[in-house]
User: What shape does this take?
Amino acid sequence: MRQILRLAVLIVGLVLTLTACSPSADRPYEGVEVIPVMLEEAPAEVRAVVEENRARFFQRSLVIGDSTYIVAGYGEKPTAGYSVEFGEALRRDDRVRVVVIYSAPAPGLAVAQVLTYPVTIARLDGRFDVSFEVQGDID
Assistant: This one.
């Protein structure tokens, strides 16, 4: 009987310890400031990513120094009126989830018939592992 009691106490203690030490699954996300960056002001590594990927749909993050740069592009588009922007950025520990919103021109809207390459760049203060949540008009 004593051995069963010890075993039960050990199991309960182990369960409580593992529950208290679980990863941050119960910890809420917190907002992270998304700081817009102009292409001309972006580090060379970021400008290179834009140039290499501008003709295709993409999202990318780069850690440079103590900052994380996020870049998203819509690819080559046949007209003006397309846009890409960052929405909410939420952090949990060293991970950040960033919403990327893609918008196409409204049907019937008069737009210039010119090739465009919509892209957006931003910086997050800190070094993060970034995932992207894509929303909007994706063709």
